[in-house]
Amino acid sequence: MSADLRIDPSRLLDRIRSLGQVGALPGGGVCRLALTEEDRRGRDRVRGWMEELGLEVGVDPLGNVVGVWPGTEPGPPVMTGSHIDTVRTGGLYDGNLGVLAGLEVIETLQRAGVRPRRSLAVGFFTNEEGARFAPDMMGSLYFVGALPLRQARAVVGIDGKSVGEALDAIGYAGASPPMAVHAFVELHVEQGPVLEEEGVTIGVVEGVQGISWTEFTVTGISNHAGTTPLRLRHDAGWVAGSLIQYVRTMALELGGDQIATVGSLRLHPDLVNVIPNRAVFTVDLRNTDEAVLQQAEARLHAHVRALAEQEGVTVAHRSLARFEPVSFEPELVDRIEATALRLGHTTRRMPSGAGHDAQMLARICPAAMIFVPSVRGISHNVAEHTDPADLEAGANVLLQVMCELAT
Ligand SMILES: [Zn+2]
Fold first, then answer.
1. Tell me: domain 2-208+326-406, CATH 3.60.15.10, correct?
2. Which of 85, 101, 319, 405 has its CA 20 to 30 A from that of 269?
3. What are the extents of the domains in the chain?
4. How far does residue 190's CA lie from ligand 1's centre (Å)?
């Protein structure tokens, strides 16, 4: 019976637009930095909708808000949700879609008179964006017990106010205790160009990429660019340039999801007729597979050493960031894919290039994500857009997956 249910796309779109009016920017887009007055007004609006649906709304001490619709049997809920805080120049969909689609799923079931066996929950997590307070995904990190409350409240934001002060000021430091979750599924806009480029409607997210950032400093010898024979050079710039070339080749050879970027490069003394004596550059490696990511790191370092030896220069390096990849629950990923195909949508398995609350929830329960296309891949931008038909498709996949999990 619930297999034939579909969400109401106009009701979903109305809520997205209504929430988008809170903190709306003059030329479009929205600014609701975490725990600001705008965020409070956004929270109040969504909380109001939760209460209208008769959900049991709880606010935890870090301001995460969860609405639970009890099932016919006790036990931890099947949960969905995301965040409603935005960057300073945010769009209407990043985060908001996942929360409002969760409300839409519950309203659809309620109106159809279908009450699932397991409870359903929809939540929004505090400070996912990290645009005011670091780290990002703060609320979900606390939610899964990986960040102490005292430590989170002490974080000072870009405006000098602490998380604790800001939470108290907007009245969102609640008392709900930690909760168990049966499974977590998050619907989100892709925030990248892949789905649109390939004409695919549903991104089946298998995990979140691991990140490895390294800064290299190559030290050679400066000399006259006209008089120094090539065989006698110790050219730091050549090593850097060769490395830029190499990381692309290496990523292609490793295949799969491996990507590699040299995003910053500075040569010294940076003059037209002087062989560079110093090159400082960064390498950004990402992969969803930790073993391959480690291979990429090993190959990168071996190649740097070989180049340095060949050119007679020295190389120093330091790590700027290192996060292991997160793999979503394979069974849940399969279920999302099968459901999307059953609903007649095109699908593509993909990693998430950005961090999301679901990767934190994956620490305490089976978790996975559904992506829908972002027009021209634009996000964290007032021009962020997703076609209404794609919003509808994503929400229907969410509806069916949650129904299956709750039955
Ligand atoms: Zn987001």
1. no
2. 319
3. 2-208+326-406, 210-323
4. 9
